Amino acid sequence: MSFFLFLMIIGLAIGWSNSRRETKKLKRQLSELQASVTRLVQRIEALETRMDPGASDEPPAAAPEREEEFREIRMEPEVETESQPKESVSPPIPVRVTEGVADSPMGRSPEPESVPEAESGRLSRRSRLEWELLIGGKWLNYIGAVALVIGLGFFVKYAFENNWINETVRVLAGGAAGFLLLWGGARFHKRGLPVFAQGWIGAGIAILYVSSFASFNFYHLVSPEVAFLFMSLVTLLAFQQALRYQALAISVIGWIGGFLTPFLLGSERGSTLGLFTYLAFLTIGMLLLVIKKANWVILYYMTLGAVYLILLSWIPFNQEPAELWLESFFLCLFWAFFFAYEVYSSLRPAKWPMANTIAAGFHLFFFFLGWNLLLLPRHEDGLSAVFLLGGVAYLVPLLFLHRRQKLSLVSREEVFRYGFSFLILLTLANAYQWEKYHLIYAWTVEAWLLVWWGARRKIRHVCGFAVILYAVSSFMLLALSAQFQPEQETWFPFFNLRALAYIGLSAALGTSALLLKRWDMKLVVPAVPFLHNGWAILLFLFLTGETNFYFDHIFLNAGPALRESLSYSRYLICSLVWMAYSLWIAWVAFRQQIRSLVATGWALLGVGVITAAATGMAYGPADQFIPVYNLRFLVFVIAAGIIYVHLRWWKKYEHDLKLKAIPVVMIGTLAVLLFELISMEIGDYYDKQLLHTSLAMEQMIRFSKTMSLVLAWFGYSLFFAWIGFRQRLQALVYLSWGVLALGLLTAIWQGFSYPVLDRFTPVYNLRFFTLLIAAGVLLVHYAWWKKQTEVHAKKVHPLLFTILITGLLFELVTVEVSDAFERIRYLADQSDVRLLHQLDNQKQMSISIAWLIYSLVLMGAGIWRKLPLLRLVAIALFGLSIFKIFLFDLSFLGTLYRIFSFIGLGVILLIVSYLYQRYKHWFHQSA
């Protein structure tokens, strides 16, 4: 009784839905009839207008409003009013809309007629109607089918819980309901309701799957084999229904059921052979279905993912040796299935080419991952052969089509994909065959051959892949070099595996760049600077490593005394190697006119110079230092020569390299290097003496070191100022002035006191000569500047030079007089207070008289040379002398010394006044 009640409910639901759909169908047919009648009326009126020429002279009536065109679908045609003339413009043609959407895969109704361009204003209303029909006629149908299955499921569950139906009847009722739904779907499809029929058929297939599964898993009415057969038949039925009714949705249901069948029935009981044989036949069926229905390509993507997901999940848990060959066979078989479809689809116009490319990429990745899971780690040697054969397989279709001269049938993207797959697998084959430096050799040869072939054939993608392979090889070589530990007993410079890898890869990069330039591969021009800079940097790292390994080799066999010298020499030799290498790089770059390589050469030169400058700040060990005859001096001189050669080459090719700052930078670098060399040589000479001297002499040696440095800086400033004024290089002039200022400040600061008074000799001492030479150097700078004032726009005021020169001489006079008395005082009896006081008075009086005499000399020179600034300075010194005598000497000196001070002041001032009165016409001329 319950079973019949169940069937009655299903029948009522089907009848109500059928009547509702039939009513809507009749309404749509009436609207189509109305549209057809309207269209015929319009055509008749157009013919009458052509047959009656006089009608064309009458003004046409306004077109009827379109506002109510689709607001409702009338059940009878509209009747024209008498006020409307026959010649009036006919109403617009409504769009005839079928019961389904036009692009429905099951739709067989005629396509709607094309809309004239003049009627494009109605697209928005038409779209709203189509959306309404799509939602109401298609989506609600799918949702209703799902809801029906769920509702029936709840009803069946409720019936099962109350034991209304026994187990056998339950299964049979489910099967009967499924076939009944299939029959209903067929009926609705014949009546012109294809979309609605899909819901019925899909629900029927789902119920048949559930019934077959329940007969085994829940009720144990049949064996697993029988249940498997039932579900397989349901799958075939699903695909048959999908093809019959052109319904993708039904095929998706069949696909889901087909792939879930072995797992729902407990696939752990089966064997690898049974499972993958079933999947193989299922895959063949899916591919044939997709070939027949090209628009159902989504089934191919789903099948590809599902098959490899099952395969890759199965292999890790079945690692028995007996199953290795079986799993390998099926892995090759599935790859062959999908690869065959890829080849087939590449010969046909693709609707979604990007999706096919992505799927092919996943296929290649799954292939790689599957073989890794299968053969690692026990059979790693076989991976190289597998990937090599796989790469050849990807290359075979291209070679075949090229030989048949049908390669143009395949799109460029497909050709690139096959070629890229071949290159990827070939590279992986090398990676699994070789290791460490031998792998670098293999990849280098492969990349060079690819560049040669790609440049010759002008295939941009091949050259691009080779450049990427070069980059990977370079990074791998750097990683290996970081871990390289040479065997000191057998290692030999430049003849080892590491050296061969660097030299081979650098040579390949350089020749590849020349090949690309030779065959004019404009599409890969950005790769040429990359290749040039790549080999230059690799050789730089190679030379650095070999040099360091050589020093390590010597260091192990050296004694303690030699190890310190080797540690210091290592960095100087490295910097020398880098600078010499930069010279060779620059020569190649200038000869071949490679701009990027010129910059690389300059960068390497900078690295070498900075390293040499930083290392040369101190000499080690200091007790082994010999002035001039040492490694640092040699390196600095060679560095200066290399910089000069770089500068000459730049001047020769400056028309190609518009970089005006280069000579300034290079000359500045050269100047800084020479400045450091001079300073360090002098400093280390005195530092070596400090190692073997007494504490009493230490101050004198340090003082001599400072004054010697100052004298060297003065000479340095004169040399570069001469070059700067001669070559019109303001930067070099300013640099020389900076060094001059450094020397002046040091001389002035150190000149205030003499370190060892018992060794002081007035006038005949190092400080006197230093300050006197400083004044002379300033005078020479001033003379050169004055000569070049027309050249330089920015003029330094002469007052600065005048103040500096007179100030230096003023300090010289003061400290010499002061230290002469300080020496006498130092050697005198320190207990004789009267003598010490007398010496202090003599010192102050002598300083005052010396100032006055110095001021008088400056005044005389100013009058003689007609230099107003010099006379002004002399007057200022007179003022300072008067201030000292009247305030200081008057307070502290004795009477006799006051007399001499004031008499001397008066005499000198009178002489100055006489000179001003006697030669006042000179002052007017100088003014």
UniProtKB/TrEMBL annotation:
Superkingdom in the source lineage: Bacteria
Ranges in coiled-coil conformation: none
Region (Disordered) location: 48-121
Cross-referenced InterPro entries: DUF2339_TM (IPR019286)
One Pfam family this sequence matches: DUF2339
TM stretches of this protein: 139-160, 193-212, 246-265, 271-291, 298-318, 324-344, 356-376, 382-403, 415-432, 438-455, 462-482, 494-516, 523-543, 568-590, 597-619, 631-650, 662-686, 706-725, 732-752, 764-784, 796-815, 845-864, 869-890, 896-916
Compositionally biased intervals (Basic and acidic residues): 64-77
PANTHER family, per the entry: BLL2549 PROTEIN
Annotated protein name in UniProt: Uncharacterized membrane protein
Organism: Lihuaxuella thermophila
Source organism phylogeny: Bacteria, Bacillati, Bacillota, Bacilli, Bacillales
